[in-house]
Structures are given as C-alpha cells and as structure tokens.
Design brief:
Oligomer: single chain
Radius of gyration: 35 Å
Largest sheet: 7 strands, mixed
C-alpha cells in the first residue's frame, strides 16, 4: 500500500495506526507524515513571529488582528507579495514523490489542484459499520462516575496506557480530578495554567515596560520567557515588541509533569482501532462543533477561491466524527443535566441506553454516597432503593464523625513537587506558631499577598533611614522620589505628609545616637543567605536593617539594630519553642555572614514610629526615650562600652544603667558571650528542626498558646479551613 518516500497526509490517530502496522509487519519505509494543516503550511509556507510584529508595527494592528491577516495571507496577493519581499514567509523543502491521503474525505479545491500535480492516492478509511450506542447520564458527575467505573473494570485485562478519554472540556477537569482520586486512578489531564499571573512574569514585564530591560532568573518559568524573547531577539524593545511578548506570555503555560502509567487524553480526530476510548460530553454544541460563516473570508469568497465553505466543512466533519466513533473500542456518553444530546444521535440513528447506576467500584466513593443518602434519610425521611444495600456493605463509615487534622501527603511526591524552599524568619515563625498555617501559606500558597499601606509606611521609613547618612542626602528629594513610585490616594498622601515630621525626628535621633558610640562602620539592608539544602534546594535568608560594627585586632564587634514601625517584641524566653526568634535569627545570620570573627555587643529593636504623648512634663525627653533601643546587651562592659560610651547611664539603650555598687540595673537585659552563643546554637537547631519537619511533611493543626494568647491563631486567615479543636492547641510554659 505504502511506498518508500511517500508523503502521507492523515490525522495523528491514523499515523499512529500506520506506524504500528509497519512495526508489526517489520517493514522499514522512509515516510513523511503531515496532518492536513501541517501540509498546507509546509507546502505553501507559513509566517513567523517577526511577521506578526511587522504587521502590528506597520498598521497598528493588535496581535489577534495581525494573526488573522497572516492566517489568510495566501489569498491576499498584495500581502503575500509584501511578506515574501521582506523574507517573512517560512517554506519547508518537501521532497514529494507520491502523496497519499488517508482519513480525509474532502479537501480544499485550491489544495487539491496542487496535489494533482504529483502522483497521488486517496485511501478510503471510512468504516462500514455505524455507531451502535450512546449512554445517557443524568449529569456530568454521573457521567464521569460511569466512565471511571467502566475503566476500572477494563483495567483487569487492559494496560492503562491503552485507555484514553476524548472531548474532555474544562467543565470536566475538576470532576475528573476528584473522582479519579476516589478510585486511585492515575490520569493525565490537560489542565494547564498560564504563566502570566506568576510573580516572575509580573516582575519581568514591569522591568520590560518601565526600564526596557530584560531581567531574568534561572528558574523554569524564566526559561519559558527566554524562549519567547528569543523569537524577537533581533528587534528593538519598543511598544510593539512589548505587546508581542505580553500576548505570548498570556498564552504560555506551565509545563505539566505527566505520569508514566495513566489514562491519557486524546483528540477525537486521533481515535483508531487500537486502544480503548471513552468520549465524554456527546452533547449538542460540544460534538460536533460546527463551523459558521463568520470567518475572515466569507463562504462566497471561499467558494470563488476554491476553499471549503462552512457548510461543506460541517458535512465532512460529521462524516469523519462518525467514522472515528464507529470503532468497537469506543464508548460514548452524554449528560442531560444542562445540554441536549448531540444532533448526530438522531441524524445517524444511534441507540440510547440510560444509565441508572447508583454504586460503584470505589469504596471511598460508595461511602460518600452512603453518607449523602443517610443525610437525606435522617433529615427528610427519604429512603432510596440502594440505601440498604450500601449500608449493609459499609457499616463502619464513621458517619457524622470528623477529623480536622492534616492527614499527610507522600513525602517523595512532596519533594518532587516542591523543588526549592526559600525560608526566612517569617516562614519559620509561622511554622512554629502552627504547622498547618505554614502548609496553607507557604506550600499550597493560598495566601494572596496584599501590599497594604501600613506595610508601605514601613518600607518608606526603612529606605530613608538606610540612606540618610550618605553624602549629599536631601530628605525632600529622596522622600518625594520614593513615594512617586506608588500610586497613592489623597488620604494616603495626606497621612504620609503628616508622618514626614516623625521620619525627620527619627533621622535626628539616629544621628544623635551615633555620637554615643565608637562603632563608626555601618551596613544597611544587609542581605544574608545560608545554604540549608537537603534532598531539595533550601535557602535560609534574611535582611538586617542595620549593622553597626568596629574592627579591633582582627575581631569584629557588632551591634544589630532592626527598625520597627509597629509593635516590638524582644522576649526570647520561647526561642526553645521556635517563637520570638527574630533577633536571635539576625544573630545567627550575622554570625554566618562575611564579617570576620564576630563578637556581639548587643542586638536590638528600635521603634521608629512611636506614639506621641504630649501629656508629660518634658515632652522632648519623653519622645526621645521612645526611640531607645530595646533588646539585649553584652554583659562584658569592655565590649558594651565600645558600642555605648554612656552605658553606665545609657542615653540610647532602654533600661541600661549601673547601680552604685557597679551591678546592672534589675531591668537591664544583658547576656554574656556564652549565653549569646548558646542562643545562636539554639536558634540554628530550631531552624534545622523546622526544615526537617517540613521535609517530613509534618503540617498538623497545632496552634500555640503562650502567656494567655493563642498566638497560632491571632492573625491566621485559615480558621475556616482547620476547624481547630481544644485538644489541637499546644500550651507552652
């Protein structure tokens, strides 16, 4: 039938059948396969992305409009000539000896005229039999359950890789995911998600639009962006370039990792006699999806050009669909919940069998059905026919019992899916407050980030304080320049303007405090990362607002200061429980930074937006004290006096002064070197412990109760997910 060097035009399903037959017969032939659309593009030529850019730029077209013109360029002589003159048409050099057409019964006249220039052969692939039966289900859920149950029975004798679902629209995806999970049936669904909404793409587009710069990382999504950009790499970054990139990003999808042994999805055109096919949604509007006379070229124009009209295409489409569905290994289903059955049922006299199945091969799903039927029986005294049957088979289903605890996920699957972890104080603190909250926020990433105005105020203060000591610093210029980057409401602008006074005062206090110290070197917004990789890549990182230090004899004496616009908490009594570790984590990070031989003079929080209280005798003095550093100092006076020359009666550290006998004031917070190092070691242990627990997928519902506060639930958004019980709460001493 086939000869060496034949060019075969056929659907993919027939190509697969031909190749399988050749393999079985141990025939070796040099064949070239094309679908009909692929052959048209290869023979006549097609356009590339630069052609889209060209039309958009020249005629101010949108991407879609440019693409519509290009899809029909062969029938627009002036456009065709223009594209060819600008080398914007790609042609494939096909060596044609003979053309064999299989599976297509009707072809455009203009294309057939070209085919007739060669030796060609039509092979009639139409089946003599007809479609025997379609199964009618009450709704999509019943339809999916019926199909999965059929597959479940089929798996006793058939390899799962030879089973396929056809016509799986988006409305079936979630139902299939849920029901296949009940059956433990592996399935590869084409539920791809666009990369457009990801943080990486948003940052990339922001840099592209604002700075005309291409800035990318080395992650999987960045690799996809690179492939898009490379299509236009020879062009200048102008508005048209950005529109092209933006469009392509919207239509680029995150790759789905497919299972090796699973039910797969196929197109209706790819059905053949090999394998088993289940066609879902055999409803009107879904099969067939008819052509209408609304194309760029009208039916009248198509007829004059030798192109199939919509009416001709519809006749051919129906015939090919029925041919494909006529195989004995095809099962057809439809639902009557919200759509009419396909018109092909009446047109081709297809028999209908109604499905009334009420119990299935899945124990999990049968138990769920029993629970529903028990609900109806208890609430409404409604007794269905199969209630007794289900109840007698599943007597111990824990009806009306609920376990709110996280039940775990496969550890290997977790490591496979979560390829990298980036952790900081915030993540670790959340984990120790409640592991389940960490799971929802940092693993499932259900928490939508909100850039609040309160957080923005902190950003403004931190930024200005990090640059206020630079040469030629101009407060008004820097403040105005920074807030111009964000669109602010009138209310927000007014509030920020009122806060300028606070910020100016904070700058003066910071400069005044500097005169009390011998630490002249400073680092601001110091980023520190520590590799904590295990089976997957793990990075622990943090940004320290301010590090004051001084080097003496190869030793670096350090004071850590973290700015706070909100409430401050310096209690380290619960570091052993993983809580209150912000300052200890800064100690740990700085200890492992590029600063050499570090010894700590102290570690503090500084409240840079304190409440003003004018009902005091000495307002200025009272206000300045509100900016005092709150934290822990080194008990070694030789070290402490390097940082604070006035430590005996400190003017910058809260509660720091000495009694007449030389001892520290009872409220002064001091630790010796051994205690500081022990605190760092404890912090490292708690970080490692959290990482080990995360990799062990330990995400139980366990909010912590500390000092009269349920800190694990205090700001949690997910209390409607965890259904916390009293016994879940862990009370810490």
């Amino acid at each position: 039938m086939f000869k060496n060097y034949d060019t075969i035009i056929c659907p993919n399903g027939i190509k697969e059948k031909i190749l399988n037959d050749l393999t079985k017969n141990k025939e070796i032939l040099n064949l070239k396969f094309f679908t009909l659309d692929e052959f048209k593009k290869a023979y006549f030529g097609t356009y590339n992305n630069l052609a889209i850019y060209y039309l958009m730029k020249k005629n101010s077209y949108s991407y879609d409009t440019a693409k519509t013109y290009l899809d029909n360029y062969y029938f627009l002589p002036q456009l065709k000539q223009e594209l060819e003159e600008n080398n914007l048409i790609i042609k494939e050099n096909i060596l044609i000896k003979r053309i064999v057409i299989v599976g297509y019964t009707l072809i455009d006249k203009y294309l057939m005229d070209e085919i007739k220039k060669y030796d060609y052969l039509f092979i009639d692939s139409a089946l003599k039999s007809s479609v025997k039966k379609a199964y009618e289900c009450q709704n999509k859920l019943a339809e999916v359950n019926f199909v999965i149950d059929k597959i479940y029975d089929l798996l006793k004798t058939v390899d799962i890789n030879n089973i396929f679902l056809v016509n799986v629209g988006s409305e079936y995806v979630e139902i299939l995911k849920r029901q296949c999970n009940f059956y433990k049936l592996p399935i590869n669904l084409n539920n791809q998600k666009s990369i457009y909404g990801t943080k990486i793409v948003k940052e990339f587009l922001k840099n592209l639009k604002e700075k005309k710069e291409i800035i990318l990382g080395d992650d999987e999504i960045s690799e996809l962006i690179v492939k898009i950009v490379n299509k236009y790499i020879t062009l200048d970054i102008d508005d048209t370039f950005i529109k092209c990139i933006d469009y392509e990003l919207r239509h680029t999808y995150i790759p789905i990792q497919k299972l090796d042994n699973a039910v797969n999805i196929k197109d209706i055109e790819d059905i053949n006699e090999e394998g088993y096919y289940f066609v879902l949604g055999f409803n009107e509007g879904s099969i067939p999806k008819l052509y209408t006379d609304i194309d760029f070229l009208s039916d009248a124009k198509k007829e004059s050009l030798g192109i199939l009209t919509s009416n001709e295409k519809n006749k051919d489409l129906k015939k090919r669909i029925i041919n494909n569905l006529s195989y004995e290994n095809v099962t057809i289903t439809y639902n009557v919940d919200d759509k009419f059955p396909s018109s092909l049922i009446n047109e081709y006299n297809i028999a209908i069998e109604k499905v009334n199945k009420t119990n299935y091969n899945s124990d999990i799903y049968n138990k769920l059905l029993l629970s529903e039927k028990l609900d109806n029986f208890i609430k409404y005294n409604e007794e269905s026919n199969d209630l007794s049957l289900l109840f007698n088979n599943y007597k111990n289903i824990d009806y009306l019992n609920y376990n709110n605890q996280y039940t775990g996920i496969d550890k290997e699957l977790f490591k496979k899916k979560v390829k990298e972890l980036k952790l900081s104080y915030t993540n670790i603190d959340r984990y120790y407050k409640c592991p389940f909250s960490f799971y929802i926020t940092d693993i499932l990433k259900l928490d939508k980030y909100e850039d609040t105005f309160t957080a923005y105020i902190g950003t403004v203060f931190h930024y200005i304080l990090s640059i206020c000591k630079k040469d030629n610093f101009n407060f008004e210029n820097e403040f105005s320049k920074f807030i111009q980057k964000r669109e602010l409401s009138i209310k927000e602008k007014f509030f920020l303007d009122q806060l300028k006074e606070n910020l100016l005062y904070a700058i003066e206090v910071v400069k005044q405090f500097d005169t009390y110290s011998t630490f002249d070197d400073e680092l601001y917004e110091k980023k520190i990362e520590i590799n904590k990789s295990r089976e997957i890549k793990i990075t622990f990182k943090g940004v320290v607002d301010k590090i004051k230090y001084r080097k003496i004899n190869n030793k670096t004496y350090v004071a850590i200061i973290d700015y706070k616009t909100g409430n401050t908490n310096i209690d380290i009594n619960h570091v052993k429980d993983g809580l209150g570790m912000q300052l200890p984590i800064y100690l740990y990070l700085v200890k492992h930074s590029d600063l050499q031989d570090v010894e700590f003079a102290g570690f503090y929080l500084q409240h840079i937006l304190p409440n003003k209280d004018k009902e005091v005798d000495n307002y200025e003095e009272a206000l300045e004290k509100k900016y005092y550093l709150e934290g822990y100092s080194n008990a070694n006076e030789d070290i402490l006096k390097l940082f604070d020359k006035n430590y005996m009666e400190s003017k910058m550290i809260k509660s720091m002064h000495l009694n007449n006998d030389g001892s520290y004031y009872r409220y002064a917070k001091v630790l010796n070197n051994d205690e500081i190092n022990a605190l760092i070691d404890m912090t490292e242990n708690k970080i490692n412990e959290a990482i080990d627990n995360i990799l062990d997928t330990n995400f139980k519902v366990e909010p912590k109760y500390v000092d009269g506060k349920l800190v694990g639930c205090e700001y949690c958004k997910y209390q409607d997910l965890c259904f916390r019980k009293g016994e879940d709460i862990k009370r810490l001493d």
